[in-house]
Amino acid sequence: MKGTRSLFRLGLVFLALSYMAVVAGCGNSEETSDIPAELTGTWYDKNYALAFEITQEGEGYIAAKKLHCTVTLSGNFVHFRYDGKVMGSFYYSINKNGELTMTLGTEDFKDIESASPFIKSNAAPQGVPAELIGKWYAVTKPPSTPNFEITATGTIAISGTAAVYRVHVSGNSVFVLEGSVLKGTFRYVIRYGEMTVMNGTDLCEGLSILSPFAKKNS
Questions:
Q1: 99-102: long-range contacts at Cβ-Cβ below 8 A with a sequence spacing of 24 or more?
Q2: Can you say how many angstroms the Cα of residue 46 is from the centroid of all Cα atoms in its chain?
Q3: Looking at residue 127, what is its pLDDT?
Q4: Is-contact 52 43, C-beta < 8 A?
Q5: 110 FRET partner, CA 20 to 30 A, in 25, 103, 132, 201?
Q6: Helix, strand, or coil (residue 186)
Q7: Strand 148-150 and strand 213-215: pairing?
Q8: Nearest to 64 by CA among 24, 125, 99, 105
Q9: Residue 209: phi, psi to the nearest 5?
Q10: Sign for the pseudo-dihedral over CA of 112, 82, 54, 147
Q11: Is the peptide bond before 212 cis (omega within 30 degrees of 0)?
Q12: What averages of pLDDT result for each successive group of 10 residues across the chain (218 residues)?
């Protein structure tokens, strides 16, 4: 019986040491600033809200804190630092669909990981890029209701118009359609969760004037 208890205790010690090795970045994994292509990009949660960004140059952005950091890796552990201090870390895995699952989040990523899995901005549910999906409000004097809303099913509602239109997206150009009739167009650029609208025509002309926009929860 004593031998069984000793083996049980040894098993617990081994599990604890194994967990500590994982948290430490798999023990002997060296920290590097070389970011793999699969990890670079703008990542959105399941509600299409901006969560974080990572660039090929090793720059990171935590949307919840609006904080710009440097990014390093230890194996599959990602570390965000600001002025030398670790602001948060997480362990990641990416499946065949390009979805990123986050676990073992620390600091600023403790809450973010609950919104996992994340998808990149170029993912396109129903043909609409994830970065476009959501309720958009003017950054300057945001109204109580969205200036426009784009859904995952490919529709757009613009404030001041009663109809709900269909959107077609090509590159960074958005075409607003009623059946086969073109009702307006605009071009967009999204940077750190803010959308700048340019060259709005017809129904979309006012969006260029009110630009930039941000999602309510970003």
A1: 100/39, 100/43
A2: 9
A3: 80
A4: yes
A5: 132
A6: strand
A7: unpaired
A8: 105
A9: -75, -40
A10: positive
A11: yes
A12: 48 39 48 93 94 96 95 96 95 95 95 93 86 96 95 94 94 96 97 96 96 84
- 137: closest CA among 124, 150, 125? 150
Tokens matching residue 42: 């703008």
In angstroms, the CA 183 to CA 146 distance is 19
Q: Which of 30, 218, 212 is nearest to 138 (CA)?
A: 212
The pLDDT assigned to 29 comes to 64
Percent of the chain that is helix, strand, coil (3-state, to 5):
20, 45, 40
Cα 119 to chain centroid distance, Å, stands at: 7
SS3 111: helix
Place of tokens 């009663």: 162
